[in-house]
Specification:
alpha/beta, binds NADP nicotinamide-adenine-dinucleotide phosphate, seven-stranded parallel sheet
Amino acid sequence: MDTTPIALITGASKGIGAATALILARDGFDIWLNYRGDHQAAATVSEAVVALGRDCRLLPFDVADSNATTVALEPLLEEATPFAVINNAGFAADTLMLTMDFEREWKRVLSVHLDGFFLVTKLVLAKMLRKRRGRVVNIVSTSGQAGMAGQVNYSAAKAGLIGATKALAQEMGKRDILVNAVAPGFIQTDMTNDLPWDAILPKIPLGRVGRPEEVAEVVSFLCSAKATYITGQTIAVNGGIYM
Ligand code: NAP
């Protein structure tokens, strides 16, 4: 590659996204770091990226907001084209379907995961196509592969993203833009802090919760020169909970 490659990571102020930013920085990427509202956490990740000798641009915007996404990304895309886009921003709003609120829990969860993927990726893809190279990695979930009670919204969003991954991989293959998904199982982050671990751990063959870095290493592999013949795949990082 001629210049330092850039990775745009959504939802990278904490958790899996933050770990991905640090590991991609370690592996030679400058980082465009999106997040929604936690400026302090994002600044801490940014400092760590800079300490690794890489640039970090902080990009606070809601990935489900078309206008905010365009306003944040378009000026940067005039200057440079990311080699990799990691669609990681997300959240869960768990409840049984019978008690699920249509706007707040169904539409919002689908919007952040699916609209977020669409809006961010479409803007960057237009530029990637001209370079005829690039990687898109979508962070999905075991929930989107197996379905999970209490997560009809989240399972639908992540299953949708797996379908979008396969379709986009087919559209982009000839241009050498590789599109894959990584499906974490239970990973220790803010999102999973309050889960009933005593009930969950016995169901995981490896008998423990995963670390964000264990997901991030697979993302980095998919963005590397070691992964030139993998596209349209969903790679599970789940301790064996779904096979
Ligand atoms: P987390 O620790 O709660 O972090 C979520 C990140 O997403 C934060 O940086 C947050 O930004 C950002 N974010 C949320 N909504 C956003 C929006 N609308 N626009 C832009 N940024 C937004 O979550 P995590 O556990 O690392 O999860 C990361 C991804 O992995 C998600 O897609 C999640 O569904 C998936 N996943 C997680 C697990 C798990 O066990 N943890 C398992 C499977 C899949 P602010 O905090 O700054 O607002």
